[in-house]
Design brief:
Elements (H helix, E strand, L loop, with lengths): L10 E4 L4 E4 L6 E6 L10 H19 L3 E6 L9 H6 L3 H9 L3 H18 L15 H13 L3 E4 L2 E4 L17 H6 L13 E6 L15 E3 L1 H13 L3 E7 L3 H16 L4 E7 L2 E3 L2 E2 L10 H5 L5 H9 L7 E3 L1 H21 L8 H16 L4 H12 L5 H15 L3 H8 L6 H12 L3 H15 L1 E5 L5 E5 L11 E2 L15 E9 L3 H14 L6 E8 L4 H10 L5 E6 L5 H11 L2 E7 L3 E3 L3 H9 L4 E5 L2 E4 L5 E4 L4 E2 L2 E2 L3 E5 L3 H4 L12 H11 L3 E4 L5 E3 L3 H4 L3 H19 L11
Parallel strand pairs: 3-4, 3-9, 9-10, 11-13, 16-19, 17-18, 17-20, 18-19, 22-28
Antiparallel strand pairs: 1-2, 5-6, 6-7, 7-8, 11-12, 14-15, 20-27, 21-29, 23-24, 23-26, 25-28
Helix pairs in contact: 3-4, 5-7, 7-8, 10-11, 11-14, 11-15, 12-13, 12-14, 13-14, 16-17, 23-25
The protein binds adenosine monophosphate (AMP) and zinc ion (ZN).
Length: 731
């Protein structure tokens, strides 16, 4: 049913004016351009947040009656990004070589994946998805015009836009120079008149894919000119709205304005709408920071991609949003509830009072008109479910607003009604209920949930409805946490065991088994113990086998962490869960060959000693650490292969530092915390232990592990550089 819409005045925050402004379109067909994906890699869910914003904006405009023409380009030319131009890199080609495909195959594959992901998020296709590679002539003709009007110049077969010629350069971002580029690269390009000028055509002598002929020589276009040329072709010299993420504001959109306005002499875009970033672990999600998640990471955890859409809608698009799987799971629960409310209220015989619904739909519209306040819209939906609206009215409101939200209320309704109910079961239950034989009818009910995923909902008047439970509603019995901050610590609780052994279960399951078996074989009978196992990351089949093998054993406890968490955090999770008087942290490269436990505990009973382990390190200068392997002695650090301490010392020394995401050097940092609490570190190389190859180290690329180790070392040094006095203790 169509409800009348009252307030058609959309207000948007315009980056150009830094104000919320009333949206006045050029004509009734609103024209929007969205900077689309770069298709030599997967689009991550941060990118998707920005595309959800464009989708909400477009649907809002359609919802209030506008026609919309939407363009979202496909950047299928690797070197179009300015930073790549500067670095002379061609990422599509590099990716193609790596994957043994042609550059265009790579682009095609990622483009297809992108559309599949957008579809999973109910993002409607744009009217045009122009590919950069198919618009080189349009870009060249714009470049030509810019040279003719002296806004751009040719230098050594490259073409640069001369920013000082465009007086308004900087009006969008307030920037005129990219300081980081200036510092690193720009000085090295002697072809530019001014270091801030940017390339709009770059020539190259190399003979490779993705190179075009031009009057300046063979080469390829700049990134900004791509969007200027395609926006012009599909939307004209001036259009209404341009969207993107805030990182696009400078230099990309600033460059686009300079080129387009210099070419056509008109204001390029009236409203610039930029979405804030999705963060992960507090920093912008991006491939280079290795903190990105994809839609497939969501689906493989049996979470609905639309729960991610719901999560985005709960926050203003202008606010940074820190992504966690826990937040996503809560969003899934919220969405499930709303969908269920729609389902259970649908198809009632209640008559609709349009005026009553309109009071609510007006409120929802008002929130949307207020710079797309989707979180308010959602809270209005929730409130409506507790209001005096009847069943049909609630559904009416949900349908009305789902035009914009696209959370699939009605699709859910239809899907969950699609099932074959075993007829005898239905009849049996009905009969039992009529006879008030509730025990029997409840039995049917629970059997049905278990075997057919079908659930009965009973009403007080004796009616009931039957629903197929969706995959996303099945309660995931697997409880996971994503970091140590989600756990309450047991440190203040009194000891329950003599020993807590902490092990990490990662993908190297053979190492794990060798290690745990060597522990259980050698732990003396007169000690009580628990084994705390942290399963780090998703449960691949290999891990599941281990879990099933050990989960029923007494005093073996698992904590499932997902997504994978850092080296410091995972160890703290195990410390927080431990209840042993002595904690043994054992790396799975270790194989225990005898009773080491009693020997270590004897040493730990000396209250002056804080940490004991077989592999000690010494240093004179905090720079060079050498391993001690001859005799038992006091050292400056104990390595993570095996270290043991009394649980009670942690409240003094503190836990592992969690900004150490890679394990390397985390042990020296932890060791220094212990020394700083006035406790000694004892190395005992005589323990009966065998050290096998360290799988994480072996399987990490040498360049990566060097970088990660160095970063950690810097972290260590930054904190401890002025603590050299701790070293002299044992001399
Ligand atoms: P790219 O493929 O890097 O050009 O990014 C595509 C779109 O996603 C651009 O509009 C970016 O501004 C946006 N974007 C990139 N990273 C994020 C992020 N972490 N959160 C939100 N949007 C992002
Ligand atoms: Zn763009």
């Amino acid at each position: 049913m169509n409800l009348p819409k009252t307030d058609k005045n959309l207000y948007l925050f315009n980056t150009l004016t830094k104000k919320i402004e009333k949206f006045i379109p050029i004509d009734d067909n609103v024209k929007i351009y969205t900077c689309g994906p770069t298709v030599y890699r997967d689009a991550h869910i941060g990118n998707m947040r920005t595309y959800i914003l464009a989708d909400i904006l477009k649907k809002t405009l359609q919802h209030i009656g506008y026609q919309v023409t939407h363009v979202k380009n496909i950047t299928d030319v690797g070197h179009m990004r300015q930073e790549m131009l500067d670095e002379g890199e061609d990422k599509i080609i590099a990716a193609a070589i790596k994957e043994g495909k042609s550059a265009s195959d790579i682009a095609k594959d990622y483009t297809e994946k992108f559309f599949i992901d957008e579809n999973a998020l109910n993002i409607n296709k744009a009217d045009y998805h122009p590919k950069a590679t198919q618009h080189i002539s349009e870009m060249l003709s714009m470049i030509d015009r810019l040279i003719n009007s002296k806004m751009a110049y040719i230098s050594n077969q490259n073409v640069y836009f001369e920013i000082k010629k465009f007086r308004e350069y900087g009006k969008l971002s307030g920037n005129i120079s990219n300081l980081s580029t200036l510092n690193n690269n720009e000085e090295s390009d002697p072809n530019k008149r001014n270091p801030n000028d940017f390339a709009i055509w770059k020539s190259t002598n190399e003979n490779r894919e993705l190179i075009w002929e031009s009057q300046f020589g063979k080469g390829f276009p700049g990134w900004h000119i791509e969007c200027s040329a395609m926006a012009h072709k599909y939307l004209g010299e001036q259009f209404d709205i341009h969207t993107g993420g805030v990182d696009n504001i400078f230099p990309h959109h600033e460059g686009e304005i300079a080129q387009s306005e210099s070419t056509f002499g008109k204001k390029h875009v009236n409203y610039w709408v930029h979405g804030q970033h999705l963060l992960s672990e507090g920093i912008k999600m991006s491939k280079s920071k290795q903190n990105e998640y994809l839609i497939s990471d969501i689906s493989k955890r049996s979470i609905d991609p639309l729960a991610f859409r719901y999560l985005c809608l709960m926050t203003s698009y202008r606010t940074k949003l820190n992504f966690t799987f826990s937040a996503l799971k809560s969003a899934q629960k919220g969405l499930n509830k709303l969908r269920h409310i729609y389902w259970i209220n649908k198809n009632s015989n209640d008559a609709i009072n349009i005026d009553k619904v309109k009071m609510w739909s007006d409120q929802a519209d008002k929130a949307l008109m207020n710079n797309l306040n989707t979180s308010k819209v959602l809270s209005i939906l929730w409130q409506s479910t507790k209001s005096d609206l009847n069943k049909s009215e609630i559904c009416n409101l949900f349908e009305y607003i789902d035009d914009v939200l696209s959370l699939d209320f009605n699709k859910y309704y239809l899907n969950q009604n699609k099932f074959e109910l075993p007829n005898d079961e239905y009849e049996a239950r009905k009969k039992n209920r009529i006879l008030k034989n509730f025990d029997q009818s409840d039995k049917v009910r629970s059997k049905s949930i278990n075997s057919n995923n079908i659930k009965y909902y009973d009403f007080s008047n004796g009616d009931y409805r039957v629903k197929k439970i969706s995959n996303y509603e099945k309660t995931n019995s697997e409880h996971t946490i994503s970091g140590s901050s989600e756990l309450k610590s047991n440190l203040s609780i009194k000891d329950e065991y003599d020993i807590s052994i902490c092990l990490i279960l990662d993908e190297y399951t053979n190492d794990f088994e060798r290690c745990i078996n060597s522990i259980t074989d050698n732990i003396p009978k007169n000690f009580s113990y628990e084994i705390q196992i942290a399963i780090n990351g998703t449960q691949a089949d290999k891990k599941k086998i281990i879990i099933n093998k050990y989960k029923h054993k007494k005093n073996i406890f698992f904590t499932h962490i997902d997504p994978i968490c850092g080296a410091g955090s995972v160890r703290n999770i195990m410390i927080k869960k431990s209840l042993g008087k002595y904690i043994f942290m054992v790396d799975t490269s270790i194989e225990i060959k005898g009773d080491i436990f009693k020997v270590i505990i004897d040493d730990l009973n000396n209250m002056k000693i804080g940490l004991v382990g077989p592999y000690g390190l010494k240093t004179n200068d905090l720079h060079h650490f050498h391993e001690i392997s001859e005799k038992k002695e006091f050292v400056d650090a104990i390595q993570l292969y095996l270290l043991a301490f009394r649980r009670e010392i942690i409240s003094n020394t503190g836990m592992f530092r969690e900004n150490f995401r890679f394990y390397r050097n985390l042990d020296i940092d932890f060791s220094f915390q212990i020394k700083n609490a006035n406790l000694k570190l004892l190395s005992n190389p005589n323990l009966k232990i065998k050290r096998h190859t360290h799988s994480i180290w072996e399987n990490t690329h040498p360049k990566t592990r060097d970088e990660l180790s160095k970063d950690n070392y810097k972290r260590f040094l930054q904190k401890w550089k002025n603590y050299k006095h701790l070293l002299n203790k044992y001399k």
